[in-house]
Specification:
CATH architecture: Roll
Number of strands: 5
Radius of gyration: 15 Å
Structural class: alpha+beta
Largest sheet: 3 strands, antiparallel
Shape: globular
Order of helices and strands: EEHHEEE
Distance between the termini: 34 Å
Strand order of the largest sheet: 3-4-5
Helix content: 10-25%
CATH class: Alpha Beta
C-alpha cells in the first residue's frame, strides 16, 4: 500500500510503501485535499476543474487562490472546503466527526484537522498551504 506524508516546509507530499494493508487516515486526507473538486454552479471563474473520474471528490481549496483575503471570511471558506472534502470519511463510517479550523498569515493558510475515530480516539493533523 502507498502511504503519503506531507511536508509543511516545502508543501509537497512524499510517498512510501507499507506492507501492513491498513487504511492510512492521513493518506485519505491528503488525497481528498489535494484533488480538485468541481466548482459549484455559482463559480464565475473560467475553469471549474474537477477530477475526471469523480468531479464531486476532492476539495475546492484551489478556489482560495482566486479569492481576495477578507478577515475571517477566507478562513471560514477554507474550513468549509476542508469539511466538504472529508465528509465522505463520515459517510463511509471511517470516522464519526471532523473538526476543522484554520488561520491565514502572510500568504500562508494553516489548516488544523481533528478526526474523531469511531472508537472516540482523536487524531490531529496540520497542513500549510501557500495561497499566493
Amino acid at each position: 500500500m502507498i502511504t503519503l506524508t506531507y511536508n509543511n516546509d516545502y508543501q509537497y507530499c512524499d510517498w512510501f510503501m507499507s506492507n501492513d494493508g491498513q487504511l492510512n487516515l492521513e493518506t485519505e486526507i491528503l488525497v481528498a485535499l489535494g484533488t480538485d473538486r468541481i466548482a459549484e454552479d455559482t463559480w464565475t471563474g473560467a475553469d471549474k476543474k474537477g477530477w475526471c473520474l469523480d468531479p464531486s471528490f476532492g476539495s475546492r481549496l484551489w478556489e482560495l487562490k482566486e479569492m481576495s483575503y477578507e478577515n475571517g471570511t477566507y478562513e471560514s471558506k477554507a474550513n468549509s472546503f476542508v469539511k466538504e472534502s472529508l465528509q465522505y470519511l463520515i459517510t463511509n463510517e471511517v470516522c464519526k466527526d471532523i473538526d476543522v479550523s484554520s488561520t491565514y498569515d502572510s500568504g500562508r493558510l494553516t489548516i488544523m484537522i481533528t478526526i474523531t475515530k469511531n472508537n472516540s480516539e482523536k487524531e490531529d493533523y496540520q497542513y500549510e498551504w501557500g495561497t499566493n
